[in-house]
Write a structure and sequence with these properties.
Elements: E1 4-10, E2 14-19, E3 24-28, H1 44-47, E4 51-53, E5 58-61, E6 65-66, H2 69-77, H3 85-89
Antiparallel strand pairs: 1-2, 2-3, 4-5, 5-6
Length: about 90
């Protein structure tokens, strides 16, 4: 599993993330705002409170919200997630 070592919130529900291998980039999470557990993100200050869980190396928010670092790595780099059907056909 990939580990995130830096995460910063950006305007319009974007997130800058850097991984332990040096890969870095932005992801747009705006489509998630207001859906299910992400309803708290309607308050931009909640989204801006992103931090990194040192045990799992993923991004977290208050209320138990977290996102899979492998999925975020795939979003940033365009690399298929290991074990996914996209990775097997590559």
């Amino acid at each position: 599993m990939k580990r995130i070592v830096e995460a910063n919130s950006l305007p319009n529900y974007r997130l800058f993330i850097r991984f332990e291998d040096g890969a870095k980039g932005e992801v747009d999470l705006s489509s998630m705002v207001g859906n299910g557990v992400f309803s708290s993100w309607k308050d931009q200050s909640v989204f801006s409170s992103v931090s990194i869980d040192s045990a799992t190396g993923t991004v977290i928010w208050p209320g138990g919200i977290d996102l899979c670092p492998d999925t975020l790595y795939s979003d940033v780099t365009g690399t298929p997630i290991p074990g996914s059907s996209l990775a097997q056909s590559a």
